[in-house]
Amino acid sequence: DPTQKHFMVLYRGRVFSVDIFDSKGALTSLDRDSWASAREELLEAGNAEKLRLIDGALFTLCLDDLKSEDPSRLIQSLLIGDSATNRWFDKSFQLIVDGNGQATINFEHSWGDGVAVLRLMEESYKWVS
């Protein structure tokens, strides 16, 4: 059904519904003034509830298609994705999984210390290993 805007996640027998929105992530890579204007246009167009959902999310999970072993390409993808459409830079924490299943993070430092995020990732890695 082309009107559906969600996908399902199954984890330990529990079912989660995840809504999918239009690819507007590139907007957050604009300079702050341009993004503020674009955000206002989205709000005026009736997207306040969608933006509230995005703003209220604990973090962003970015699922990328890139399958590369080239470190330069992987670093570029980590920072901005292919065209910034698969990143939401207003979120303080983004978990990024590439097409090979490798996971990494991109986070904005003003809210907290990098050591705390490193500890979170170390403990997460131990838990899944």
Automatic annotation (TrEMBL):
Keyword Transferase applies: yes
TM region(s), chain numbering: none
Record's keyword terms, sorted: Acyltransferase, Transferase
InterPro entries: Carn_acyl_trans (IPR000542), Cho/carn_acyl_trans (IPR039551), Cho/carn_acyl_trans_2 (IPR042231)
Organism of provenance: Ancylostoma duodenale
Domain of life: Eukaryota
Protein name: Choline/carnitine acyltransferase domain-containing protein
Location of the active site: H109 (proton acceptor)
GO biological process, one term: fatty acid beta-oxidation
PROSITE patterns membership: ACYLTRANSF_C_2 (PS00440)
Domain Choline/carnitine acyltransferase: 25-126
Keyword Cell cycle (UniProt): no
Family of the protein in this entry: Belongs to the carnitine/choline acetyltransferase family.
GO cellular component: mitochondrion
GO molecular function: carnitine O-palmitoyltransferase activity
